[in-house]
Specification:
alpha+beta; Pnp Oxidase, Chain A; 8 helices; 30% helix
């Protein structure tokens, strides 16, 4: 099957052509960008239990990773410095390896029920500094390391995307059972999932047990 191909006649190849498609940037959209964490940005971060972190390696290969914990899990060290605990995951280490190669990161903070979001761009470093790591312990378990971010740019992002998607609207929630489990999806697309429903259910149960055992 031949892959999709764009018609080069309609390609946008430079910034002038791109901006020609849109109206001028609203003055407020430019003015809102700050290089420090003001009181409202700090309050937003303390309320947020979830963020996405975008990274790139030196070859430009991009990755976005979700991070979640109880609200306020991201530490505000000062008005230009944040620290994110690195909790147990799948040990692919995509985000961490990318940071070692290219420290530029982008963060998107999300609060359940809020349609607006907070964006933070900056430069990241990895640390195992004992005092910081111990301060991030949950249920007696400290992270192996922390991602410390020096803030370059901070701004609030408008609510349009969340309102278009109806993300928090209960009437738009989808039934998770309409798609296979995470493990079945992975197995279907790799080695093949077992056809026996009981065997598949046992594998799913093992994942749930692993979640409980390794969440922190």
């Amino acid at each position: 099957m031949k892959g999709f191909e764009l018609d080069p006649a309609f390609a946008i190849a430079d910034e002038q052509a791109l901006r020609g498609l849109f109206e001028a940037t609203h003055a407020l959209a430019i003015q809102k960008c700050r290089d420090t964490l003001g009181p409202h940005a700090q309050d937003f971060i303390r309320r947020s239990p979830f963020l996405c972190i975008g990274t790139q390696n030196m070859d430009g290969k991009a990755d976005v990773s979700p991070r979640g914990d109880p609200a306020g899990f991201v530490r505000i060290l000062d008005e230009r410095t944040l620290a994110i605990p690195d909790r147990p995951g799948n040990n692919r280490l995509d985000t961490l390896v990318n940071i070692l190669a290219n420290p530029s990161v982008g963060l998107l903070f999300i609060i359940p029920g809020f349609d607006d979001t907070l964006r933070v761009n900056g430069r990241a470093r990895l640390t195992t500094e004992p005092a910081l790591i111990e301060s991030m312990a949950v249920n007696g378990r400290a992270p192996k390391l922390a991602i410390v971010i020096e803030v370059d740019e901070v701004f609030m992002h408008c609510a349009k995307a969340f309102r278009r998607s109806h993300l928090w609207d209960p009437d738009h929630r989808q039934d998770r059972s309409e798609m296979p489990s995470l493990v079945k999806i992975i197995l279907d697309e790799t080695t093949g999932a077992p056809s026996d429903e009981r065997e598949m259910r046992d594998i799913d149960d093992q994942l749930e047990a692993d979640y409980k055992r390794t969440l922190y």
